[in-house]
Amino acid sequence: METLFQNVVNALQWGSFYALIALGYTLVYGVLQLINFAHGDIFMVGAYIAFFVASFFLGDAVPFDLSRTAVLALTIPLTMILTSCVGVLLERIAYKPLRRKGAHRLYVVITALMCGLILENGNLALLGASRRSLPELIDKTVYTLGGIAVTNLKLWVIFTAVLVFVILQFVVMRTKIGMAMRAVSWDKFALPLMGIPLDTVILFTFILGSGIAGLGGMLFAMSYPVLDPYMGAMVGWKAFIAAVVGGIGDIRGAFIGGFLLAFIEIMVAAFLPSTFRDLFAFTILLAILWWRPTGLFGVPHTTKI
Amino acid sequence: MKKYTLNILALVVCLLLVVAAQMDMLDQYVLTIIMFIGINIIFASSLNLVNGYMGEFSCGHAGFMCIGAYAASFLSVTLFTNNKILGAALLPPYLAPWLFLFILLVGGIVAALFGLVVALPSFRTRGDYLAIITIAANYIIISLIENIDIIGGPRGLQGMRKVMNAMRHTLDIPWMLIWVIIVTGISLLILYRLVNSTYGKGISAVCQDEVAAKIMSVNTDRVKMVAFMVSSGLAGVAGGLYAHMYGYINPQAFNILKSTEGLVMVYLGGMASLSGSVLAAILFTLLVEALRFAIPAVDGALHAIHVLPDGFELSQVWKWVLIPLILILLMQFRPEGLLGNRELTDVFPRLRRWFTLK
Amino acid sequence: MALLEVEHLTQRFGGLQALTDFNLTLEEREILALIGPNGAGKTTVFNVVSGFYTPTEGSVVFDGKPTRGLKTNEVTSLGMARTFQNIRLWKDLTVLDNIRIAQHHNLGYSLLDAFLRTKKYRIREREIEEKSRNMLEKMGLTEYAAEFPKNLPYGLQRRVELTRALSLEPKLLLLDEPAAGLNSADVGELIGLIRWIYDNFPITIWMIEHQMQLVMSLCTRIMVLDFGKVIARGTPEEIRVNPVVINAYLGEEAAQCC
User: Fold this and answer.
1) ipTM of the assembly?
2) Most CB contacts within 10 A, which of B187, B228, C89, C128?
3) Would you call A118 and B211 a contact, using CB atoms and an 8 Å cutoff?
4) What domains can you pick out in chain C, each with its CATH number?
């Protein structure tokens, strides 16, 4: 029973990471119908940026001594901003020119896939294979509750994911730009009529998605402090699948899909050898897609004849 | 006679290659690259059937290659060698050359059956959702094989070299090269014949307008199934060749990165173009090998003129920065690839006079 | 026996009732028009009849066979061909290939035959090609056989689509707004073409059309659909003076053209 609860906590933590990435996938997909395959690697870039920012503030380059809490307070927004810049850079350099030429959607998807590869391997090529680890920014406290050990970090991760979801849901449903984002997914050409340029909406979407991925990357690096250029690829692919199972383009779907995937994975690993994790996780996800071809929250698009 | 010029030329080149290999005039490295080109041709052109002709976005093609590689290897190792799996060889080793094509075929059929995992959902869903299913299929296949201990699990499977040695023992000719040439030829012929038949044109019809295809009596479900199964089956055959060429396989050799290589080749060559895929497979394989030498050379040169700091070295990883970059530039400036929707004969109509293909 | 019998057809999409109790008996060699304002459910009727939608209620019996449960391509194979409102040709396949693919119901060889290029395959492919070229010739399209439809003018694309439908050798031809997007000169030509098709093929025609000139000069019978319900049926003369129809749809247009 205790291990079960322990697993639930772990699943919630992993689900938070998946959900944070899946949200970015789903935002971009909702607006552009583009599978931004580079998104998992943006997550990785976020982790590295957090590392560099935190190391910078803790290092000798800063003339005054900062407390670790202050460093954390500085690192979070800086990481999010810098990661957003990377995301926006990709959009501006790689995707936008293609869109302007009216290229087939597929070509943009392939470009995204290739951008992801460049980010991973470029990182490895530039920084080398030596593994880095994020300095500890908060003291670990372990709360034990009837035999279940929970670190404060885990609670923070879960709390952040939920908070991000709530804020995002508010932004998309209640603010003007959020409504514009939803409008684009229905009709790209009607949007200028609302008085918001399409370009602004797209830019905003990438800032939002990449910023959230950056935050996720940072939290990931704090929880598992060994950085690796390929850390984003696997998690990214999985988060993407989670987003699709939830119904890509839908924020609730991405959030729930992320947690669902994590629960399946952790529970499989709890009862079977951990090597079966991927096998079962993906098979169950396929079964869900088989049952609901457009995901849990997805709306089927009918072709008009 | 003129009509057969290129056919005869191709035959002569293949024969010369085999003779050269037999006389030990070809370096083992060169030989490996030539065989690898053949395997990549099958891999890329079979993927093009689904991604180009049918217009789906399958990004888990390497999974089927994996299945084919394992099925064929398992069969050949248990049949012809004393192995840890079933003990003594089931058949005398001298039969190996006679049954090898059959073994590859079985590998292909098993892979084609796994192709159903992707083909069946394609009846109901298209585009992005199907792309996901292919990715998931790739993961599932690798994970499945990693969990089957009898074929080595994550450690991989070996023993195929012994099979090749058994063939050499029967008759000392460069078997592997011969198999690669024959199988590449057959695979291309199958694809060519399929896409040029009225049956196969149905695949393009599904791609361009599925509703119209249904209304015009095309059984779209069956056509999709055929396309996916032929595609994954041929990938499986390519896997069988790959396994016997290297003599060792492990599941992670067929992960998403390998699938991505296939995508690079298909879109480099151009969708719905067989000659494009062939060309791209050749170019891609040579490029990867050329970079293997070019990167240290550039590294040396840059260090010599002190552009790069001493501690920094250009590693082989740069290869995987440059190749995606090439494809990105291609998508920006020539998104249809080298030959999108066209064949070489459409670009150079005169070529038609020099060969016949049926 | 009637060629097509549609009984009590009702079609709902979620809460939307697109068709209510649609009944029709179509005899062989008729030319029937289905008219009605936009959004009346005309194309929905075609989509149900051609097997694209499964009807919520009611039945469609074509040539003595109920079509419920059949896939679209199976309904087509029974001898029902169709064109679309917005031309749906395969734009990157040649005109000849467009026609050839319509022989899919009647290939007469298996996949293995195609791989091995057996004698059966070669004979059948030659027959298919000959048949397709004949069809193109009959429709005056021989010179465009190697063209891509995307490079043809609109009127010719319509003609290719019609040719493609005819090459299925259908007993029933469904035409969804064949005159859409054509100018008045083209319409005159289209009337001649449809008349010629009717005279030269053993065919029954059912069309959806807004173009009154075309409907009035070709059709033996007219049905009027409004909000998913049939509000009138009769000969062109009867429809022309039917007050319900004039009210719902024809309005001034009818007054002008008569």
Assistant:
1) 0.90
2) B228
3) no
4) 1-79+170-258 (3.40.50.300), 90-168 (no CATH)
